[in-house]
Here is the input.
Amino acid sequence: MKKPLLYAGVFCFMVSGLLSSTLALAQSDPSGKKPITDTYAITNATVFTSPGQAGVKATVLIKNGLIQGVGNNLALPKEAKTIAGDSLFIYPGFIAGASDVGITRPKDPERPDDFVSSNPSDEIAGITPWRSAVDQFSIKDSKVDDLRKVGFTIVQISPEGGMIAGKTAIVLLGSENSTNILKENTALAANFRGSRGMYPGTAVGVMAKFREVYDNTKLTSERSQKYSTVAGLKRPEITPTYSAMQEITTGQIPVMFTTSSDLEIRRAISLQKEKGFKLVLTGLEEYEGVLDVIKASGAAVLVKLEIPDDKAIKAQKEDATAEVKALNARVKKAYDDAIAQAGKLEEAGIPFAFSIVGVKSGDIMKALQKMIASGLSEKAALAALTTNPASILGLTKVAGSIEKGKMANLILSTDSLFTEDAQIKHMVVDGIIYDYETKAKKKAAKDGNGAMKIEGTWEYTSESPAGSSGGILVIKKDGSDYSGTITYDDPSGAGKATSDIKNVNLNGSSLSFSFDVTASGMDITVDVSGEVSEGSYDATMTVGEFGSFPFKGTLTPTLIANK
Here is the structure.
């Protein structure tokens, strides 16, 4: 099914090449692509040059995409455009150790008529080390700007695929008029997903197949060297798989194994010990029980920047039975333990960075704040977003801190970065300025129990490059739980449609919910998340793979008058 079939409906769900940045462009440039200047001076801002360093008042000078200086007595060129930074806080731009932003999954190969499930070809079995993430990447993906809005400037992109998906690459989240590629073939993306209906179909089968591919690559390389120098030898079989795997067997690049559980972590480390390749553990979600194993392995670590869903905890009733309360206590402990894991990595002295594969950009800062509240220091959190990934990805000389000669990748926020009220006002990526709207947060109405008052009827609008759309959001309260409905433009063109809202979560002034839409036979989950203030709701609507769009709601006058 072609995506354009969906664009006419579901809140005008259309992804275009337009990004929401407000890059200043030269009026004399008919292409609209040339910046007015490439020289900027951000003056008298509070600058945090690297993790653990105190903020100091200073000016940051940028030219040609590089930091030219940081200090108080800089000689500013006459062509420099000045940005008053008196009320701004400047941090190094975030770096993601692994990301799927802008990545599309390649089409699955067709099975031949003589297909044998016990011995499929490498490509059909998901063994495609020759593939490059660059070939699957588009800077025009709206999720690029979504990540930029929350501070990310550089990401390592990982290809979609099977057990050996292909080679990762490092890219800038910069202008679509730039190549944005920093490094290609930086790691081999691998996982323990078996192939459906064929060998290897299990995690154990994947391990066996990985050993086979690795050993055959080494053997082929040795035979090729002998074949070129010794007469009378049989020609060695050279395949795309063996050629692409040589960077692994010779130690030029690491294997980046996705290992969400402690069992998968042990399996990846076992393979690494056996074969001797360089290892990066990524996507870690359950790892507290194997911290000693991870530390002893020396593997680089990428923790998934996501926390567990707490809806089950919020739904717990005070009048529950003793048995239910005991179960709830175990659920709460598991939740608390999961959030505290990052802090325990820090305690164990294991440097780590973050993976944002499959993570919603709107949840990132909340996850960081939760981790910090559960024991992770702000210094370690910032290091995991800057200096640590720069080291893991080999970018220390060009990124990760604010220093003369490094890339101009900066976050300009309205407050200390990890505080609840901090908002990103500007991003600098590769020397280009992106501006974002910030708003003073208002106090929201509260009910008799001190909770935010969100129940009632809301009129909302949503914006996308295709235009404006809107409808009615009704929220009802039942004890401590919320439910309701939402109307939207029917994708079939039959006026308005209605869907139940679910997963309603109110945390302080933060409100999130989701609902399902069917368009052209395709089921889509829409996630809405934002801040409630005095009679208004300022949020972001994320529509699956189609990106994120502004969502603004207003309580009807009837409810406001009676609050």
